[in-house]
Design brief:
This protein is mainly beta. It has two helices and ten strands, in the order E-E-H-E-E-E-E-E-E-E-E-H.
Length: 140
Amino acid sequence: MSDTIDAKGQCLCGAVEIEAKSLQKNIGACHCGMCRHWGGGPFLALQCEGEVEIIGTNQVSVFDSSEWAERGFCNQCGTHLFYRLKQNQQYYLPAGLFDLDEELHFDHQVFIDKKPIYYHFANETKNMTEEEVFAMFSGA
């Protein structure tokens, strides 16, 4: 059984479609301040190991949210479309874009030390702090 899946999703209004190749089946939650400000809560994301094709690119706006990443959204309905690392163009896509309820599994949380106390997930997950996340991406 594969850990990835090819999937198609779309924004709320249908103006933008996303086709993702080798989308990981494991959902991660990011609790960093930027993600919580962006969506009003944790970012529930799927990492894409392969190509991401965006249909309707003229409806996509991109915001440079940090030195290392940018965030895309539909400029018609506001749906969050992606978080993309600039250095290697790695995509993290909102799990809600895809109708894959049966195939997905919530298994990790990042920036766990930044999670506010007013919510808690019941799932047993691998948890990483801000320091651990930055160490992983810096190769330290």
